[in-house]
Amino acid sequence: MKTIGSHLATLLPGETKVRRQLAPFVKYVALLVAVISLYGWLFHVIMAREGQAHSWFTGVYWALTVMSTLGFGDITFESDLGRAFSTLVLLTGMVLLLIILPFLFIRAVYAPWLDQRSRGRIRSLQSMPEGLAGHVLICAIDPIAPGLIRHLQLADVPVYVIEPDADVAMNMQDVGVPVFMGDIDSVETYRAAGAARARLVLANASDTVNSNIVLTVRELSDSVPVVALAEVEDSIDVLELSGATHVLPLTHQLGEHLANRVSAGTSRVNVIGKFHHLLLAEFPVLNTPFQGRAIRDTRLREFTGATIVGVWERGQFLPSRADLELSPLSVPVVIGTPEQISELDEVLVIYDPNPNPVLIVGGGKVGRAAAAALKRREIPVHMVERDPELEPKIASIPDRLFLGDAADRCVLDEAGIAETPCILLTTHDDAMNIYLTVYCRRLNPNARILTRVTHEQNVEAIQRAGADFVLSYASLGVQTVSSIVQGRELIVLGEGVDLFYVPLPQSLVEKTLADAGIGARTGLNVIGVQKDAQLVTDLPPDQRLVKGSTLVALGSAEQRERFRAAYH
């Protein structure tokens, strides 16, 4: 790291402004030297009158110790004149050394150095690495951005956040956020950021600003993919007309994804994503023969060909183990061909599902989107909303609308909480959702409780409260944008669980899955091995890992980082 002196050395020859700022400080230092010299000479004069003799350097030493208020006391005057002189030197030193000198140093030396350093950092934040291409540009810091940055970095995709404010940009850089400084509505910003060579530009500000961002990027390039977030559905058409490649109404999609995890109606198996030629699906074991059995005893693969790859248990995703027992509230996640999943549904459909209406608490955007999605599946819906002003927007969507506070047991009883197979908590207040999770679990222990969460730090609390499935706006946004960046089908497994494609590291080549111990060491659940476009999901412990393979694994970002640390 450069010192202040080295910075000044580089600035002085060519920076007239810096020389002008330093001139008063240099003059003051010269004055200080003159004062110290004068006091040193007067010291010898008075000491000579008292009959004492000292070296010339002793006078300088005495002047400095007195002026700096250190006053070691090793050299003192005996006369009143000498003591009066010492007092004068002390008072002068307090003003010259302790007050004026720091002020001038900060103003003439330290502040210009900081300013020059900041200008250097700003210049570095306004440039990209030479030849950078295939990167992702994020136009704002929002709830999605931190998770998306982490997810893309794990996939070795370069990513930068555009920030117009210099102080904020430098603070972001200090905490490790890759940042590019510039105005998000300036075409020069995107030109300097290499937007034309980018893999994707994410417009994640407000709807009106996003429209401006899309149009600005399109001035530079017609081909770069631009993903725009839409807060309201009416903005979708506007953003598409502006030139957005993908428009994501995440609030609306959050409601639809919550509705997709509802176990009700005639089907018992919910398909949650497409994985190459295979499907990922889940089903509740309540009131089926699988309840209370270990996974090995279900003989699911023998009967249908589908494989259990994990189990949701009260909001926690557990890796599949042969001895893992399925409780009444377990929801296994299975992988199989469309025919195998269909056969599994036929096996389960003979066990009568609960025909009572699904209960949705909250009639906001998420609640309305969830209700509409359920109605398209011909699943009856009851909704509880406490704001009577929303009634005109809501009334036509659910089968019945109950106005009142969901914390009121009478309202919940009237809405049918005791009989409902599934409860969706869609309010934007995490504290309320946690409270209602505990309350609803007590009123109906067998119902499946699905809830949204606004702040990531509340995920564990809402899981401990008894939620069976949790999904946040940020998590959905991260998974959706990541799937677009990597050109893969969107699979939303749940909060804190992602699908990772991991190139096989050299340290695992020619080892078996059992010898690798990936699950034990990292927590990742390997569900498939891909080699030359061929995907194998039936993985025995002695499955040998060959060079050039790609592991397909389920787990969290933390587990993916542990894998990198353990095997790379």
TrEMBL record:
An example Gene Ontology CC term for this record: plasma membrane
Keyword Disulfide bond: no
InterPro entries, A to Z: K_chnl_dom, NAD(P)-bd_dom_sf, RCK_C, RCK_C_sf, RCK_N, Trk_Ktr_HKT_K-transport
MF (Gene Ontology): monoatomic cation transmembrane transporter activity
Transmembrane segments: 25-47, 59-77, 89-113
GO biological process: potassium ion transport
Pfam assignment, any one: TrkA_C
Keyword Aminoacyl-tRNA synthetase: no
Protein's name according to its UniProt entry: RCK N-terminal domain-containing protein
Species this chain originates from: marine metagenome
